[in-house]
Design a protein that fits this description.
about 210 residues, globular, metal-binding, magnesium, binds magnesium ion, EC 2.5.1.3, binds 4-methyl-5-hydroxyethylthiazole phosphate, thiamine-phosphate diphosphorylase activity, eight-stranded parallel barrel, binds the ligand Cc1ncc(COP(=O)(O)OP(=O)(O)O)c(N)n1
């Protein structure tokens, strides 16, 4: 694990797209990394187990060169085996406390809390580095995702952990979630389904750093 003790707690948290073809997957992801995401999550539900490992191993040197922390979705063991910076776990992805014990104190460990403050409280107690809520808007990537109320973002502030918002976030609706208390905006389709993914990455940055008249 090479997680920095101080990691970026505010900005675009980019998640990779589902793509079964490794060459195409990397050709889609690598070019947007330099343009402003502050965290990257490897999430590719369309890849085989062997390809998942290959793809994490291919992303890691690029992330290292940019100082961009890389988390692995679902599978903290793959994160441990590849030396990634951490993992993101949902309700079906195993024990957060076990992952924390295995990965150590420096690892970045994220927890899906959906629409439930009590899950966030439990995740914090189990050693999460951040808590994630959502979906806040309809998501083309995950149309059946549970929907969450933006008020959860303010209600979870007292946990003292960065709060991640996810689900259908676009450059247009991003500012409302930042205003509601989101520290990190987790995005897939808004970048990878955009006609110009690099321009889309830059557009999300504006939610955190608006122009003077905005
Ligand atoms: C930052 C972030 N938030 C939520 C999720 C969703 O995790 P999960 O519920 O385990 O669903 P899948 O991503 O595994 O489909 C996430 N991955 N990242
Ligand atoms: C993994 C996940 N969990 C809730 S919504 C979602 C998908 C987010 O993707 P998009 O940004 O395309 O809506
Ligand atoms: Mg999961």
């Amino acid at each position: 694990m090479n997680a920095p003790s101080i990691w970026p707690r505010r900005g675009l948290y980019l998640l990779t797209p589902d793509d079964p073809d490794t060459d195409r997957f990397l050709a889609r992801v690598l070019p947007v990394l330099a343009d402003g995401p502050v965290l990257l999550q490897y999430r590719n539900k369309a890849a085989t187990t062997a390809d998942r490992r290959r793809q994490v191993e291919a992303l890691l040197p690029a992330c290292r060169a940019l100082g961009l922390p890389l988390l692995v979705n679902d599978d903290w063991r793959l994160a441990a085996d590849t030396g990634a910076d951490g993992a993101h776990l949902g309700q079906d992805d195993g024990s957060l406390a076990e992952a924390r014990r295995a990965l150590g104190p420096a690892a970045l460990l994220g927890a899906s809390c959906y629409d439930q403050l009590d899950l966030a409280e439990r995740a914090a107690a189990a050693g999460a580095s951040y808590v994630a809520f959502g979906a806040f808007f309809p998501s083309g990537t995950k149309p059946l995702a549970r929907r969450a109320d933006p008020r959860l973002l303010a209600e979870s502030a007292s946990l003292g952990l960065p709060r991640v918002a996810i689900g259908g976030i676009t450059p247009d609706n991003a500012p409302t979630l930042v205003a509601a208390g989101a520290d990190l905006l987790a995005v897939i389709g808004g970048v990878f389904e955009a006609p110009d993914p690099t321009a889309a990455v830059r557009a999300y940055r504006r939610a955190f750093d608006p122009l003077p008249n905005e």
